[in-house]
């Protein structure tokens, strides 16, 4: 596993805990004390630049592997192995998510091309009242057998992602529980695009905007015989490289 693949595979919170760093998850970032100045630094837990950290105070930066090498006084391969072993402890949600928002349909959702009917059917909307997903479009997420596991939020202001700490997007594919593997499956990184595909009668899954496919998502995806990727041009090459060793049929469309 090379440098980039390791950064994608390592669970940020688990890794920081293993090397003795206390941290706090906030959306797609994890906050921790900078090893140089002890002020608050940020490391990306999901999405682009995952596991790269930066301190706004002293301007120091790096990645989770070099941080581990420094904290544990070990070499590259040993640090990488330690982080990957820590990742194996990540657990999926095993109990039903009981929180249920009163979801509202609004003009923002309408402008994204989603009908009120599909939003009611899939439990999508802006939560009424004051919640951690206030100002977001919330999507109910179910696991591969249909159990409710979380709400995933997309801010209407800037479309940044917000979700509960217990939810790890790398463990799930949105919409997977409804698939019939005998028919073609579409894949997208855009949740709004995914819902539009579903409303138009296509089977579609989404990886919650991640610029890669996690190992867990790949295992789920391999259950489908034919998968069509509808993703941004800049993601085609890295996704294609991930799929080169797979034995299923994959194609990419614009």
Number of helices: 9
- The helicity comes to 25-40%
Q: Structural class of the helix and strand makeup?
A: alpha+beta
Order of helices and strands: HHEEEEEHHEHHEEEEEHEHEHE
The biggest sheet amounts to: 5 strands, antiparallel
Spatial strand sequence of the major β-sheet? 1-2-3-4-5
Average of the residue pLDDT scores: 90
Low-pLDDT segments? none
Which outline best applies? globular
Hey, roughly how much beta strand do the residues contain? 15-25%
Distance between the termini: 30 Å
Give Rg in angstroms: 19 Å
Count the E strands. Answer: 14
Explain what you see.
With 254 residues, the protein is an alpha+beta fold. The chain has 9 helices and 14 strands. It has helices spanning 3-9, 12-18, 64-72, 76-87, 107-111, 116-122, 191-199, 215-221, 233-243, and strands at residues 23-26, 29-33, 40-44, 52-54, 61-63, 103-104, 124-127, 136-142, 148-155, 161-163, 185-188, 204-206, 226-230, 249-253. Helix 2 crosses helix 4 (76-87). It is globular, with a radius of gyration of 19 Å. The two termini are 30 Å apart. The mean pLDDT is 90.
What's the gist of this structure?
This protein has helices at residues 3-9, 12-18, 64-72, 76-87, 107-111, 116-122, 191-199, 215-221, 233-243, and strands spanning 23-26, 29-33, 40-44, 52-54, 61-63, 103-104, 124-127, 136-142, 148-155, 161-163, 185-188, 204-206, 226-230, 249-253. It is of the alpha+beta class and 254 residues long. 31% of the residues are buried.
List keywords for this structure.
9 helices; globular; five-stranded antiparallel β-sheet; alpha+beta; 254 residues
């Amino acid at each position: 596993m090379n440098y980039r693949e390791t950064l994608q595979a390592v669970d940020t919170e688990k890794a920081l805990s293993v090397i003795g760093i206390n941290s706090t998850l906030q959306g797609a970032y994890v906050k921790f004390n900078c090893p140089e100045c002890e002020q608050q630094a940020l490391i990306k837990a999901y999405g682009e630049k995952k596991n790269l950290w930066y301190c706004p105070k002293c301007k120091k930066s790096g990645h989770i592997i070099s941080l581990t090498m420094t904290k544990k006084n070990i070499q590259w391969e040993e640090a990488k192995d330690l982080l990957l072993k820590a990742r194996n402890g990540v657990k999926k949600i095993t109990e039903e998510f009981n929180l249920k928002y009163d979801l509202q349909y609004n003009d923002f959702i309408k402008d994204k091309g989603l009908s009120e009917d599909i939003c009611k059917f899939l439990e999508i909307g802006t939560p009424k009242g004051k919640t951690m997903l206030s100002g977001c479009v919330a999507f109910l997420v179910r696991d591969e057998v249909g159990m409710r596991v979380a709400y995933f939020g997309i801010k209407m202001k800037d479309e940044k992602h917000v979700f509960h700490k217990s939810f790890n997007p790398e463990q799930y594919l949105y919409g997977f529980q409804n698939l019939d593997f005998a028919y073609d499956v579409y894949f997208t990184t855009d949740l709004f695009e995914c819902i539009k595909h579903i409303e138009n009668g296509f089977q579609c899954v989404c990886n919650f905007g991640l610029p890669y496919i996690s190992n867990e998502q790949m295992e789920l995806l391999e259950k489908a015989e034919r998968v069509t990727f509808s993703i941004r041009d800049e993601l085609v090459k890295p996704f294609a490289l991930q799929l080169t060793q797979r034995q299923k049929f994959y194609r990419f469309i614009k």
